[in-house]
Amino acid sequence: MKSIYDLLNDVHSNAIDEENPPLSRAERAKMKRNFRQSVGSAKRSTARWTAVAACAVCLIGFSQTAFAKTAINGILQKINLGHNVIIQEDPNATPAKPKIYDKNGNLITNIPKGKSITIYDANGKELGTMSNGDKSDNRVTEKDLSKAVQKLSFKPLLPAAVPSGYSFDCVKLYPDDKGKIDGDYADFYYTNGSKKIFVQERRNTQATATETGGTAVKVLDINGHKAALVDGDTLEWETNDASVYITTQKNLSEEQLISFAKSFQVSK
Question: Which of 4, 21, 140, 165 gives the lowest tally of CB atoms within 10 Å of its CB?
């Protein structure tokens, strides 16, 4: 059986794979706050957060390599978009292996396949939940774009044009603990055969703010708003009301991705 660190390091993020869904935003926000407090101030260390946690080993609030890189020795720059922060990491920085524990204070080194556990820091503070191979998805799929937009608590930005060959597929909405739609989040899918473009939009609040990053970051302008292009296939920016995150997994060139982003307009 692979150790927990092997599992996390083997994960290849697939943010547009519907079989590996994002996790609870409330849990993610909680874990983000708790974890950052447990590892120290952001001046000494940081964690790389993804806007969507979709990976073979579901780790709330972390991207595929974030957990193994809890303490990053080199941060080249931090880009503040307003609510969200983009970190450019030094690819030569030496990663540090954090230690996580169960509720009894025992060090966790592996998770049985199909199991889910609650993890704690060395002081017994709950950080969140980690699972190995859990592919449950409680998001609500809406094929009617206009109906999905009406269920949101903000006006999302929608593209006036999509890349050649692509078309709108569906919107996935997030139910809260009571089964009602949480209108602060929406996942939009655009498909071209087996190729997908994933767009997540969030209402700008303290709870929905994220910290993401990569080793190659370019600062751009999208319709008058500061934007960050990360690793050539992810683009993030925000308006006064909403944050927009697009990832293509190299299905589009940088030029196509930027052109697609510039076509986004506030829905009416």
Answer: 165
Calpha distance 23→25 (Å, rounded): 6
- CA–CA distance, 122 with 117 (Å, rounded to integer): 16
Neighbours of 169 (CB within 10 A): 17
Q: Compute the distance between CA of residue 245 and CA of residue 265 in angstroms, rounded to an integer.
A: 14
Q: In what order do the strands lie in the sheet with 167-175?
A: 140-142, 167-175, 181-192, 195-203, 242-247, 234-238, 225-230, 217-222
Six-digit token string for 84: 């969200």
Rounded alpha-carbon distances, angstroms, from residue 209 to 28, 154, 259: 11, 15, 25
Give yes or no for a contact between 35 and 85, defined as CB atoms under 8 angstroms apart.
no
Q: Write out pLDDT tens, residues 52-92.
A: 333 223 333 333 333 334 334 578 888 999 998 888 888 87
Q: What's the CA gap between 13 and 51, in Å, rounded?
A: 12
